[in-house]
Amino acid sequence: MRYIEKWDDASFRQFVEQYSRDVWNYAYFMTKRRETADDIAQEVFIKAYFHISQFRGQSTMKTWLLSMARNMALNYFRSAFIRKVTLVDLFSSNETSSSAEQEVLDQWASKRIWSIVLGLPRKHREALLLDVHYGLSCKEIAGMLGIAEGTVKSRLSRARSKVNECLKEEELDYETI
């Protein structure tokens, strides 16, 4: 496999276009702040531009970029005061709905699920996002987080159980109204 030693403008532009949304969404998910996600995403691509010769294919490009974003977000948590914000549904679907009512219900359900996911402990929500949204394997998640695969599986199981438990509780609450 041939590794990239230096970017040309067209290749780097295509690279950024391919991965920028994933990197920004992950940074936002980690920090819950748009401005911080902007800064982290920009820093990730600057770092990738100048350090591409260090990438040796031991992971996918996506995993490499998300690892950088994660490290920068964790550094942000160590160095900044974090204010609570509400997650805006960034991962909206491009599909058309059959009705306005159905679209509103779908948006409400999506926001509610994200609200539940954001309520999980960071280690559980991070594993769940990397699995469900980014499609990383347990092995890739383990490598990225620096933990054992079994730990990833355990975190995913606990996260899914908690999300399902919260959804069932809400369902029971609505039935009693």
Pick out its properties:
mainly alpha, 2 domains, 177 residues, 71% helix, single chain, Rna Polymerase Sigma Factor, Chain: A
Summarize the structure.
The protein is mostly helical.
Report on the architecture of this protein.
The protein is built from 7 helices and no strands. With 177 residues, it is an all-alpha fold. It folds into 2 domains: 9-79, RNA polymerase sigma factor, region 2, helix turn helix motif (Rna Polymerase Sigma Factor, Chain: A); 100-175, Winged helix-like DNA-binding domain superfamily/Winged helix DNA-binding domain (Arc Repressor Mutant, subunit A), CATH 1.10.10.10. Helix 6 (138-145) packs across helix 7 (149-175). The longest helix is centred in the C-terminal third of the chain and has 27 residues, at 149-175. The chain is globular and about 55 Å long.
